Amino acid sequence: MTEAAMLQDFPMYAYLPARDLARAPQFYETKLGLQPTEERNGGVVYRFANGTACFLYPTPNAGTSKASQAFWSVTDVDGLITALKKRGVVFEDYPDIPGERSAAGAITGGGAKAAWFKDSEGNILALIEEAPGSQ
């Protein structure tokens, strides 16, 4: 391992804070269709493609960040917006973000199409579809 690439070769995972660890998994499992893979240290682990994962953990600080906590790199933002809305997910509207809006509500700009929503704990999560050739 070179000093310049100290962390480049290791997977990175997301921590998602939850005020109510009874309510939060319900959102992730019912609204997003996720399945927990394990319970650990008072929290819940969800695993995703390519070995990535997130850890939903209890803390009174959940929902206090005004920035995105995590995002999914997806291939069809508009299709996922439509499917998630049918499950009761409410997407955020950010009128100050420049870019074209799709009929589903995604914003295109900066080489990607994106949409944001909040989980039951107030964490901001995103769906990001990179433009072809921008990866």
Automatic annotation (TrEMBL):
Output the PROSITE patterns linked to this UniProt entry.
VOC
Q: Name one Pfam family in it.
A: Glyoxalase
SUPFAM superfamilies for this protein: Glyoxalase/Bleomycin resistance protein/Dihydroxybiphenyl dioxygenase
CDD domains from the UniProt entry: VOC
User: Span of the secretion signal?
Assistant: none
Ranges for domain VOC:
10-130
Its recorded name reads: VOC family protein
Q: What species is given as this protein's source?
A: Ramlibacter ginsenosidimutans
